[in-house]
């Protein structure tokens, strides 16, 4: 399993390279930020390019994992569909081909013959990423890839990625919006039970290289299975137990009743807002917030699977909020944890894979209980 972890770190870095190239290369950047004006064909083309960046990243990950672990082919799922209809009404399936040239030719058919853009993307896809020093030596987990399946969110917080506001991150502080909220998320779960067991998060835009000014990323990973609980982020120091000091991060579009209830529980200074479902869970992992509460089914399995594995490795988790509100258990109730193997059968399309009961991401189950009891009867 350590081999799989090293591979996921590598492909996440390659994905981050593609995400950076789309902002760094003028020919690609123009497509990414172009205003949706002009005729319908132009609008559709620009829209397609934004989706194409996501699809290309997802397919790179799917391709590279499938090559090294053929037993996982068919079990690598993601947010995006790789079927496109180009401006001429032709249906194109985006895949990574055997050579850079073949991939460029295929991409050009989606990019309405823009060969410069297609070649730049193909080069990033076929280039080897920088070696990642992940300190995974000695890690051994009694699981085989044939027991696992994968969820990919190629870029989470796409709106922040496209808007592209640059924030200088301050150590120990949550920064609510900007490029750093965009994350590559790859999570592996057990096919049999749906438990998330391995997660890789790559933050392509963590800081700028002081020398050259280019963006540099940061990666985070975690493994949680049986007695093995290892995370690249060390557990933040616990503050005194109890309600005091509890801090929460929410989506700015969260329901008013949740905002009010948590303001009285945490105090106005300890209630924060941030973009990106993945980024909010990363804030909990890093200890920048204690919990992330979401009362709606607006996140999906690909948003939570990877960061959930890291939280489990730290002794926390991600609970289904609706189930938690119904649970009578006084201790940690494993029945309420999100799982990743089964669709929500009443949902349609992407909603089949939504975390439809909402969620609470937490490091400490006492804090989960405080949140749940404060929200009981309010939703
Ligand atoms: C989105 C993205 C949004 C989030 C939403 C996710 O994923 O993370 O930012 O909303 O839940 O599904 P919010 O920022 O209000 O939490 P994507 O960018 O991949 O569509
Ligand atoms: Ca997402
Ligand atoms: Ca996405």
TrEMBL record:
<keyword id="KW-0479">Metal-binding</keyword>
<dbReference type="GO" id="GO:0046854">
    <property type="term" value="P:phosphatidylinositol phosphate biosynthetic process"/>
</dbReference>
<dbReference type="InterPro" id="IPR020550">
    <property type="entry name" value="Inositol_monophosphatase_CS"/>
</dbReference>
<keyword id="KW-0378">Hydrolase</keyword>
<comment type="similarity">
    <text>Belongs to the inositol monophosphatase superfamily.</text>
</comment>
<dbReference type="Pfam" id="PF00459">
    <property type="entry name" value="Inositol_P"/>
</dbReference>
<keyword id="KW-0452">Lithium</keyword>
<dbReference type="InterPro" id="IPR000760">
    <property type="entry name" value="Inositol_monophosphatase-like"/>
</dbReference>
<dbReference type="InterPro" id="IPR050725">
    <property type="entry name" value="CysQ/Inositol_MonoPase"/>
</dbReference>
<feature type="binding site">
    <location>
        <position position="79"/>
    </location>
    <ligand>
        <name>Mg(2+)</name>
    </ligand>
</feature>
<comment type="function">
    <text>Mg(2+)-dependent phosphatase that catalyzes the hydrolysis of the 1-position phosphate from inositol 1,4-bisphosphate and inositol 1,3,4-trisphosphate and participates in inositol phosphate metabolism.</text>
</comment>
<protein>
    <recommendedName>
        <fullName>Inositol polyphosphate 1-phosphatase</fullName>
        <ecNumber>3.1.3.57</ecNumber>
    </recommendedName>
</protein>
<feature type="binding site">
    <location>
        <position position="303"/>
    </location>
    <ligand>
        <name>Mg(2+)</name>
    </ligand>
</feature>
<keyword id="KW-0460">Magnesium</keyword>
<dbReference type="GO" id="GO:0004441">
    <property type="term" value="F:inositol-1,4-bisphosphate 1-phosphatase activity"/>
</dbReference>
<feature type="binding site">
    <location>
        <position position="156"/>
    </location>
    <ligand>
        <name>Mg(2+)</name>
    </ligand>
</feature>
<dbReference type="GO" id="GO:0046872">
    <property type="term" value="F:metal ion binding"/>
</dbReference>
<keyword id="KW-0597">Phosphoprotein</keyword>
<comment type="pathway">
    <text>Signal transduction; phosphatidylinositol signaling pathway.</text>
</comment>
<dbReference type="InterPro" id="IPR044897">
    <property type="entry name" value="INPP1_dom_1"/>
</dbReference>
<comment type="subunit">
    <text>Monomer.</text>
</comment>
<feature type="binding site">
    <location>
        <position position="155"/>
    </location>
    <ligand>
        <name>Mg(2+)</name>
    </ligand>
</feature>
<feature type="binding site">
    <location>
        <position position="153"/>
    </location>
    <ligand>
        <name>Mg(2+)</name>
    </ligand>
</feature>
């Amino acid at each position: 399993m350590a081999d799989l972890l090293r591979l996921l770190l590598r492909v996440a870095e390659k994905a981050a390279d593609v995400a950076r190239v789309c902002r760094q290369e003028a020919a690609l950047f123009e497509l990414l930020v172009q205003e949706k004006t002009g005729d319908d064909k132009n609008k559709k083309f620009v829209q397609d390019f934004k989706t194409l960046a996501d699809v290309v990243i997802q397919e790179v990950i799917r391709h590279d994992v499938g090559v090294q672990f053929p037993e996982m082919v068919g079990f690598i799922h993601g947010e995006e569909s790789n079927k496109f209809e180009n401006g001429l009404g032709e249906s194109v399936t985006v895949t990574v081909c055997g050579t850079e040239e073949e991939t460029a030719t295929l991409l050009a058919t989606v990019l309405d013959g823009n060969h410069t853009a297609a070649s730049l993307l193909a080069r990033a896809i076929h280039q080897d990423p920088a070696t990642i020093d992940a300190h995974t030596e000695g890690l051994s987990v009694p699981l085989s890839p044939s027991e696992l399946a994968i969820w990919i969110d190629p870029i989470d917080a796409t709106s922040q990625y496209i808007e592209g506001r640059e924030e200088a991150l301050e150590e120990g502080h949550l920064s609510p919006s900007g490029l750093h909220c965009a994350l590559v998320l790859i999570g592996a779960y057990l096919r049999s039970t749906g438990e998330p067991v391995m997660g890789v998060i790559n933050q392509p835009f963590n800081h700028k290289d002081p020398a050259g000014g280019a963006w540099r990323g940061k990666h985070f990973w975690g493994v949680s299975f049986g007695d093995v609980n290892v995370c690249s982020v060390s557990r933040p120091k616990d503050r005194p137990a109890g309600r005091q000091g509890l801090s929460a991060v929410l989506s700015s579009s969260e329901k008013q009743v949740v905002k009010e209830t948590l303001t009285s529980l945490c105090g106005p200074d300890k209630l924060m807002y941030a973009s990106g479902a993945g980024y909010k869970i990363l804030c909990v992992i890093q200890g920048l917030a204690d919990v992330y509460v979401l009362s709606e089914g607006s996140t999906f399995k690909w948003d939570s699977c990877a960061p959930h594995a890291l939280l489990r490795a730290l002794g926390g988790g991600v609970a289904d909020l609706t189930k938690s509100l119904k649970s009578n258990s006084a201790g940690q109730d494993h029945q309420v944890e999100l799982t990743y193997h089964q669709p929500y059968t009443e949902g349609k399309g992407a909603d089949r894979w939504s975390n439809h009961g909402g969620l609470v991401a937490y490091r400490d189950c006492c804090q989960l209980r405080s949140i749940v009891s404060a929200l009981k009867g309010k939703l």
